[in-house]
Amino acid sequence: MSYKKLILLITFFISISGCASTPCATGCVSEYTSTFDGTEELSMSPSYVYRSNKGVSGSDMRIGLYWSSSLPDDNIVLIVLPHKDKPVSTGTTINFNVSGKFDSFTSVTKDQIANLNPSTEAKTYFHPNVIKQMNVLYYVVEKDFIREILSAQDVRIRIDLENSYLEGVFSYNGRIGAKQDFINYMSRLKSI
Q1: Is 8 part of any domain?
Q2: CATH number at residue 64
Q3: Which end of the chain has fewer CB atoms surrounding its CB within 10 Å, N or C?
Q4: pLDDT digits (tens, 9 = 90+) for 64-106
Q5: Burial of 119 from C-beta contacts in 10 A (0-12 / 13-18 / 19+)
């Protein structure tokens, strides 16, 4: 083997091992069980909601999910990262148009969600140390609502900000995008 090929091979393996140890950027699911009390959690790094149904059309927001066996009843936490330079305020409304039916939820602070304490073992972009540095909104919804938006043909999202709004098409069904990542997440959640 030539010296040049050996250098390329070494570089390739170094780059692969570095990527395997870093948190995932979008749509990755991480499962963790506490060795302390057996609490199970499943988190999904926020994934893109595109501006239109025409594929990768730009994105003004990313959304992810977090569930823990310590959360009350059938709750799941919707994590929204709006692409906004200024911090967004608590109480920001997220609106869903689910095939003509409208649902709205108001954001809450992390402290208002009982038992929202994600493990630092998560290998997703939802890692607590990363989230602290971002404009993040938390919404508590029921798992049935997530199932509803996954089964609907047309789902649009709008976040009302202080002086404007952001919107996108959740129902985009491509390989990359929030809907496909939510489907993968919910199938993993069924097995827990």
Answers
A1: no
A2: 2.60.40
A3: N
A4: 999 999 998 899 999 998 876 666 777 899 999 999 999 999 9
A5: middle
